[in-house]
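pasting for the record
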Amino acid sequence: MSIMTEHMLVGANPARWWVTLTRQVVGVIAAIADAVVIVAMAFALGTLYHLVVYGGTGPSFSFVEIGLVATSIFVLPSAIHGHYAIANYLSFKPHVRRVFTLWNVTFLCLLTLGFLAKTTEVYSRGTMILFYAGGLPALLLARFALVRAIILGSKFGIVSAQRVCLIGSEDDIAAFLQRYEPWNFGLQTVALLPLTPVPQGASAAARRALLDLDLKRAVDSAREQRPDAMFIVAPWSETETIDRCVEEFLTVPAEIHLGPERILDRFDHVRISKLGPMASLQLTRAPLSSFEVLQKRLFDIVISAGALVAFAPLFAVVFFLIRLTSPGPVFFLQRRYGFNQQPFRIIKFRTMTSCEDGDVIAQARQHDPRITWIGRWLRRTNIDELPQLFNVLKGDMSLVGPRPHALSHNREFEQKISLYARRHNVRPGITGWAQVNGLRGETDTDEKMRRRVDYDLHYIDNWSMWLDLRILFLTVFSRGAYRNAL
């Protein structure tokens, strides 16, 4: 193609030229925003720390220098892996895990480089800790602002991730547009290509003739509009139609996408998995990867061991209060289901006059006469849960996860609530996402338990160390964690 011809084509289709330009600009802005935030935080926090602690501004050039090194470690891998593509800035949720992981890797690299270069004595520990703690929320805030700006721009047609053509029956195209509203996440629809309805009783030859005519028209339209992608929004069961569409669209210089089936809307991490020559559509991943399991387990061991040492005096006080105020054992043991529905015995401070662990167990209720006066205080302050730190140390539980229920309640709710058993795909926790959102206490209706399960499944599908830390913080400091306590 000659330069003049290319210039004429671009001039004839300014929308495509604008889309291409905005994609490149957004990627550059995203990378620059990360770089500016990192360098600015390194300089500002380093200066602030030295002003407060030492009464001077400190080595300003060194702060900028450490910011530039951190920028190169953080930004370059993101650029290489395509993280600054506009498609990644149409939702904020994936950025939380991505930024958290990369920021930790960046600091590990900084510490390693400082040790090897013998420059760690130049930078105070306070400066580095403040830089680490302040840089993460600053990066997330910048990403959030950019995502909101791009989403807003896509709604007004200023920014587009892709220009697409949709082909399928009129009903399927209308359902796709109504369900997904693609203009809200950067898809600019440049052509709708409805397939002609086939009369009932039409022969196979007549069907093929109608489809061939529609596809010829669709290909001609695609060549004129020059979309980035062709979306086939026919049901996956219509294999003949899909095969013919793919065959024809392979001659068009555009991506070919098979439109989503409704079942895919239930899953956040659908991807194509390739095993040798076999390709499959992976709807879910394992709840945690091997590295994530190890990361979470090490965190549990360190925190639970430290907490047991720190709370030893409190344990002694509670031990004597329970023994002095009511007859019976100090600790309450009950069978619960753990990871992969393996039973274990949960340990709690006894808060009731009864210690039921049979096939029928009555849940604690408001003003339950079985709850002792010291037990009511222990429940309201969550102190009755602290002995479960032994369960965490042993490996039966985690600090954070879905709360385990008595075996009899488990069997009941499995029959009533879809996907209830998915809660056991991770270790149960002392606290969880449902609990810090006020969903604790008696589940006297199916709707209460269903809401609790929804929060538990959200936690499983969106796990990160950052989410665990947030839940632990809210467990101690939020009102929601103490709401509905019996």
